Amino acid sequence: MAAPPASLSGRDEGFVSLSSPSPSAALLLPASAESRASSGTSGSFAYLTIKDRIPQILTKAIDTLHRHKNEFFEKHGEKGTEAEKKAISLLSKLRNELQTDKPIIPFVEKFVDTDIWNQYLEYQQSLLNENDGKPRWFYSPWLYVECYMYRRIHEAIIQSPPIDDFDVFKESKDQNFFESRESIIALCTHLQEVVTAIEDLDENQLKDEFFRLLQISLWGNKCDLSLSGGDTSSQKTNIINSLEELKPLILVNDMEHLWSLLTNCKKTREKASITRVDIVLDNSGFELVTDLVLADFLLSSQLATEIHFYGKTIPWFVSDTTIHDFNWLIEQMKESDDKCMSKCGAAWETYINMGRWVYQDHIFWTLPHEFCVMSQVAPDLYAELQKAHLILFKGDLNYRKLTGDRKWEFTVPFHQALNGFHPAPLCGIRTLKAEIQVGLRPGQAEQYMASEPNWLTTGKYGVLQFDGPL
Ligand SMILES: O=P(O)(O)OC[C@@]1(O)O[C@H](CO)[C@@H](O)[C@@H]1O
Ligand SMILES: [Mn+2]
Q: Which residue range or ranges hold the Damage-control phosphatase ARMT1-like metal-binding domain (predicted)?
């Protein structure tokens, strides 16, 4: 079992108040829903997210609380029923604020990051001039209001004891896992075959396998419940058979760089030293299985000797992985009636017990800050990431935070868009689900825009984008 999150209060000494990010970053401000909406498109993705998808997610959360009413009563008596009513009324108030574009309000419930969130609201206010009024849902940067919304859901729950540890998204995350069973079995069967034969694989076969599992981890990112507005988005087909047809949909493919970095580490590594790969996780369910399968291969192939995983400290963007999801999934695998799934689950539990897989929590991952200010806001986390030989950032939200969710030109180099965030060689692995992409060739974006106006937000295309010494 991965250790429960260290007491978060122990983390807050790592925070410093953020006045504003580096001046160069201010040249391009993250776009708000309104500014994207007013860019002539009646419903930009950001606008539609705030206007339609988030209210839908809130309604589903309210419905989930309602459906657990009896359970709360059985567990906690009248107090449980009262708590359920209170949480529902807080979420309904949140939905109304959002739908009527009310000003963003400070957090009131004491939690490890309450002050830093309220400082960030003041910072957002400082960016507005007097006639702009207050930060608002449709006016403030999309990245901020979307993160704020999920943190408000968490506040509503922690204000409703004794159900203050309830995860309103757990059912959807678990359902995604169960509905993806066939694909998970296929993937685990494949991994067991590879691990059994691994001693006999030559360099090219290892490389092919590494590339195969990287692509599976990429396409696993399509299973995303916040994009689907909380509707099911499990993996129904056997993804291994579709990699060849999906390959042209990879717009930036830096897998060769990852291979040469890790094989270099392996060749030059002395007996006792380590090669550490950090994986900043995204969604639980099928995507998490693809990440754990990749992590298993990294150890089995000796491309790495230690994997560190980062999850979310609170329920986040519907499907994101918390430590409870991480432990629950490994337990489900271990207890599965499918022998390959149970073999994987047992192996993964052993990796954790041996300390070769390490699960880490940090509240920074559920703050609204872009990653280029991490070294100021969470210097302890930045120092931790600097210990890695390679960091894999999974998913679209991480990509938005890596690039500051700014309206960069499509051809701006990824290194520039990182705006000084270089803790270690890193790779963004994301399917495109937001209106931001950098590091493309001249004319490449125009080619997709012409044929598919929504190419940036359907999750159809993906990137494996590397930044580091070549
Ligand atoms: O990080 P993930 O799970 O790949 O995607 C997060 C996401 O679903 O949330 C936002 C839409 O609400 C977008 O950034 C993106 O579509
Ligand atoms: Mn996610």
A: 49-446
